[in-house]
Amino acid sequence: MADAGARIELLGPVRLFDGDRVVPIGGPGVKGLLALLALRVGKVVPLEEIIDALWGHDPPATARTIVQGNVSHLRRILRQFGDGPVTEIRTSPPGYQLAAEPERIDVHHARALFDRAVPAPPERAATLLAEALALWQGPALSGVPDSVRAPELAELRLAIHGARVDADLALGRYSELIVELSPIVRGDPLAERTAAQLMRALYHAGRRGEALELYRTVSRATLRTLGMEPGADLRWLHERVLHDDLPAREHAMPPSGAAPSQLPPALPALAGRAADLAWLDGLTGGVAVVSGTAGVGKSALVLWWAHRAAPHFPDGVLFAALHGFDPHHPPAAPGDLLAQFLLGLGVPADEVPEALHERAALYRSTIAGRRMLVVLDDARSAEQVRPLLPPGAGSRTVVTSRSRMEGLAVSDAAQLRVLGTLEPADAVQVIEELAGPADFDLNHALARLCGYLPLALRIAGARLAASPQWTIEGLVAELGNERTRLAALDVTGAEDDGVRAAFDVSFRRLPSELARTLVRLGAVPGRQFGPYLAAAVAEIPVTQARRELRTLTAHSLLTETARDVFAPHDLVRLYLRELAETELSRQERAVVLDRAVRYHQAASDTARRRMLRIVDPLDFTGLVPSDGLPPLRTFDEAQDWFAAEWPTLLAVLNAAYAEARYVEVWRLARVAHTYRVVCPLYEDWLQLVDLGLAAAEAADEPLGQCWMLISRCAIALTFELSQGSLADAERAVELAGKLPESRSLAVARIHLGSVLTLLGRYAEATACLLETAAEAEQAGDLELRGQALNNCAETEKRAGRPVEAIGHELASLEIDRELGDDSYAVVSMNNLAELYLDIGELDTAQRYATEAVSLAVTRQFELQEGILRVTLARILQAKLALEPARAEYDRAIALYERMHPRRLEALKKEAAELGQGLPEPPPPVPE
Predict the structure, then answer these.
(1) Which of 502, 529, 564 is the last residue of a domain?
(2) Where are the transmembrane segments (predicted)?
(3) Is residue 82 one of the residues assigned to a domain?
């Protein structure tokens, strides 16, 4: 009997289990969604990535809705599970996150077994790896749409199988391996690693002739198919078998003095890194570069791997510390490194040439034809590395560097691997190796504050282990303060070995123009930036800014998290902030902030004009030249810009407020407010508007106070919050009446009428709105007339006069269509659908609701889509189409969980009442 609780299988048919019971979940789309979330358990999978994976480049117009409905369906199923670890799907913008124990998902269990097998002796490793292979129940991800692909699963199985065969070879299980591997190689003679393993098994089983014939078979296949000889590893093995000098136990170290063995000690344990080790294992010769930010564990990974791989290089291992980014040493000269290698290869000191080119020539001659591993640690540049590369196909070179060394990929076909930070569980393991077990939540908090960066984790663990007076609670508190975090990660008595010092070396060795840009980015609030913002704050062209950001990424100081979105590691961000405070004067930092504010004002104003009809007098589009702004040509581009830039925009707002830049704050808050009108998140919107209003009041600007009060009324109306809304609306009208232009007064009166409607004062509301509509018609202002009529229709509806409401709403919809404004049109069509439902004209109601849903989905109006689906559900319920009605409620709930949590419980209750007497659970959303 399996443990209770959810288990997920992906290595074969995609299945969900409750203990040992298979739980039906639905068709390919639902299974594909579950697989996508389970593959990245604990991480947020963006909704757009889910859509791309499920439908490729041709998703249906309702793709977002289908996904949201299927998420709701899976949640209902998971809520019914029995005792056991809680598994749930969380909404976490911009997508969804599966919260579950990784080892209850077969893929992650297989990786964990692989990771445990890496340092284990052969017998234990063989057992663990066989257990991992047994998890495959057929082709991975069976039963999901063809567009859902995870090629890494095939790579994982190959890596596990190859490692298990290596362990069996070390245990002398040659006969069993010959039986197992022969059909695999016959089926795929291009699988060189498997062919090499079979050759070894044949040779050690006394079947040398068959091993040589196997090589000839593989060689013919590669020549015929690829037009080239087999790889370096297989050619070397063939030569050894041909000369009958393959060691009986290849995993034994060569006799002392027979070959250089220069590797420094490795860490006693290596947390995580299974995928990176598998990548290193899969290298077939030539040059490999492992790069990453300072302290990410590049050297630790490569040394750990090199010690394990050393027996495969019988002619020895050379190691050199190149000091490319060492705070204690200048970068090592290639000539000195060549002399070190020549001495290690047995060349007498008096025979080492003086000239660099002569040393390089002697090195190449000495190492030619040998099978050696060369590890070059902490390289500064490709030029420092190239003279040290061994010739021939039998040797392998692995380089570590903070630079990506893309030049080596071009000139020497180097394979590149960028090393990331550790997974949370692996990061906690690093701390516990040094400091011992501690409270689960505190250890995870400490790992998070260390940014999952191995150097920071080891410093924190060592500090706890070496200083009994320090508690984990105290260290978490110290690291929790961003102002003291880097100081807490210095090494006592050796500050040059701390996190700050590691970053400082990277910065000090940058070219001056890159350093200048990076310092200014350090003065920008927020956690990410793009080329347009970088260009604005550094006063450089956008093309230069993009080039510099990508160069800084190549130096591992930034990461390009999405196209044209760059972010430093969290500890690097704190270092850059400190750097800006020391390298720039207060006045210079103020100038950078001012440029960031102006950029966001101009870009936000441009974006909002692509999203809604704008009726207020603020216009900041000319603050930045047009070539300095992102090309926001469509509604979707504007919405995507706001979504990506929102965290930085809020950070800039708060920083400007702290610097008493009150006028800039309320103006930016006003133009950014439009995004939350279209995609409202209550807390975000309220924070923005309250900050803007406080700034306008501090600046004593009536115009700002008026418009921010109007914004606050919009929040009240969207979320139906009556408290304080009338006072805000009346104050806005009072302020607008003293302004020289009339549009502000009209907009304020429209909001006053809507607030009066919310309060049930219908006669006052109707009089106010109709008067405003008449004045707008007289002034020839279609936008304001349309808004006033729309709001008047809502008032008449709530007052119980649906026929009058329909008349106003049809007039408003006509204006919306004349102006081409989809955002207002969906509101008008929803209102018409509700009104026709009220008077019993169900077919007309359904026609308006369906058309509006389609438009809302196309334009990604998520809140309006949720409202419309509730309307459509009620219409379908009235037509006794209960199953389609339930589906619409489910889709609406999925939207409301993110967009409108305050109405969620009432909506769930309404949906539950509809479902009385219907079977549970309901079927998944049709695909």
Answers:
(1) 502
(2) none
(3) yes
